[in-house]
Amino acid sequence: MSSTFSLSNNQCVQVASTGSITVAAGGVGIYGGWVAGLGVSNAGTITAGIYGYGVGSDGGTFSYITNSGTITIVPSSSSNSSGIRLQNNASAYNVINSGQIQGGDFGISLTSVDSITNLTNTGSIYASDSGYNIFNQGAITTFNNAQGGNASSATTTSLTYNGNLPTYYNIIVRSPTYHGQLAVTSPSGATTFGIYSGGVDGVAASTLTKGTYSSVLSGITSANLTGATSGNYNGFTWRLNNSAGTIWDLIVTGASTADTQASLQNTASSLQNTYALQNSVLANSFSYDCTVFGANNVCISAAGRNTAVSAANGLNNTSALLIAGYRLNNNYRIGAYADQNLSVNNAGSTVNLGNNTPLIGVFSAWNERQDGTGTEVKVSAAYGQKNTTITRSVVGTSEAGSGSSQLNSQGAQVVAKYGFGFVDQVVVSPYAGVRYTQNTMGGYTEGASSAVTAPLTYSALNTNATTALAGVGASYRGIPQTTLFASAGVESDTNTSNGTYSATGVTGLTPVNFNANPVKTRPTATLGASYDVAKNQRLGITGIYRQEPYQAVQTTTVMATYTVGL
Q1: Which pTM value belongs to this model?
Q2: Is the CB of residue 402 less than 8 Å from the CB of residue 389?
Q3: Which residues, listed in sequence order, are joined to residue 115 by a DSSP beta bridge?
Q4: Residues 498-545 pLDDT 10s
Q5: CA separation, residue 358 to residues 226, 320, 383 (Å)
Q6: Which residues contact 201 (CB under 8 A, 6 or more apart)?
Q7: Residue 223: what are its φ and ψ, rounded to 5°?
C-alpha cells in the first residue's frame, strides 16, 4: 500500500498504520496540519523523500506519536528532512519511540515555538546526513532515553542533541552496554538529570548494576545541570562524575533493594541455626551435675560434648567441660561448670562462631534422699559469650558485606521432681519446671571495601523465652555397677520475643521477622548410661534430643563424662 494522510481540520483523529506509507520529495507521510488531538501509531513503515517528513504538523497538536516500526527518509542522504517535524507552534504530548526514526538533517526537529511534553526513546533516532538526532529550538519537558551504550548498533550508539536542553533528562538503563548516552552540541539552558524509574506505558523501569557507565552526558558543563547530581535508585547510590572536560560518567554503587533484602533473608536463616545451637548448649547446661562425692565431699567431672544442628551445612560444635560440685550435707549440694568450645564446624556458612570465652554456670540442688527417691529441687543459671562473624551471601547484585559482633546467651532454670521406687532398682521421676533463656547479638556495621560499596548497619537481635517444662524420667540400677537412665518431656513457651533482623544502608530495606512461625511446644528426650569403674569413679555417656523453636530445626547432643569423688 502506498498512501498519505493529510489532515487540516480542527478535529480529534487517531491514525494507526501497520502497512507502508510512501510519499515523494517534499511530502509528509502523516501530516497533522492544524488538527487538535491527533493520535498517531505506526507499527509499519513510513517513507518520505528529500525535503519531506515522516510525521509532521504545522501548528497542530498530537496527543501521542507512537512508533514501533520505521520512519525513514529516502534517499538516506536527503538533507532538509526529518523523521518527525514540529513547526509553527505545533506540539505533542507523548512521543514514544521503540522502533527506528531516521531523518536526513534531523531525526526529530522542533522550531522555536514548538514543544514536546514527554519524549521517550528506547529504539533509535538518528540523522543520516551528518545532522543531529534531535534538533530542539523549542521546548521538551521530559526526555527519557535508552539510546547508547557501546556503539555496536543503532540503539547502543549515543544520541546526538543540539539546542535547548530538556527540563528533565532521565537515563534509561537496560544493561552496562545498553543505556542512555546524550552527546550535546551548543546546549542552551539547563536540565535535571535522573534515573528513569517507570511511568511510561510499555517502558520498564531502569535496571542498574554496580559500576561506571561512561559518557552518559557529553558536551555540557556543570552550568547546564540543575538539581541533584547524585541520588538513590532501588537501593543503589548513583552520582554524576565529571571525568574530563564536558564528559560526565554515571557511577553506581551499592546493590538493589530486592537483592539485598533477599540476602538478609538468607542471613537470618543462617542465624537461626546459630541461635538454635547456642540456645541448645545453654538449655542442656542446666542438666550438668556432679553427684559422686568422696571423703572431702568434693566432686570433679571432666567431659567432652558435641552438639549438632540439623542444618544443611552440618553445623556442630565440640566442647570440653569441667564440672565441680561440693556436698554441704546429705541433702544439699552446690556446683559450677565451664563449657569451652574447642571447634565449630560451620563450613561455608554465613555465620561463624569463635572459640573464645566459655559458657559459665552454677547450680544448687536439694534432695530428700540420696537414692533418687523423694523430692529433688535444682536451680541452675549460666552465661556465655561468643565472638560472631557474619558474611552475607551474594544474591544477584547484593554485596558480600561482613561484620563482627558478640552473641551473648544467658538464662536460669528451676526444676522439681519426685522419685518413686517403681519396682526393684527402678526409680520413676516425674518432673516440672520453668526456664528463662535470652540470646542477644549486638548491633554491628559491615566493613567498606572496593567490593562492598554499600555496607549495612544492623540493629541488635534479641530473642528470649519463658518456658514451662514437664516430663518423666526413669533410672535402672539392676546391672552391677551400671545405671541406665532415660527421660522424655515437653517444653512449652509461655512468653516469647523472637526479635527482628533489621539493617540500614540500602534504601527500602524492611526488617526480617526472625522467627515468623515459632514452634512453641516441643519434645525433648534424654538417654544415657553410667558405669562405676572404681569407688568414687564413674564413666558416663548421655544423648539429648531437642526440637528447637525454629521450624524443622532439631539439635542432638552427645556427652561423655569421667567423674571422680574426692
Answers
A1: 0.85
A2: yes
A3: 91, 139
A4: 999 999 999 999 999 999 999 999 999 999 999 999 999 999 999 999
A5: 60, 9, 9
A6: none
A7: -65, -20
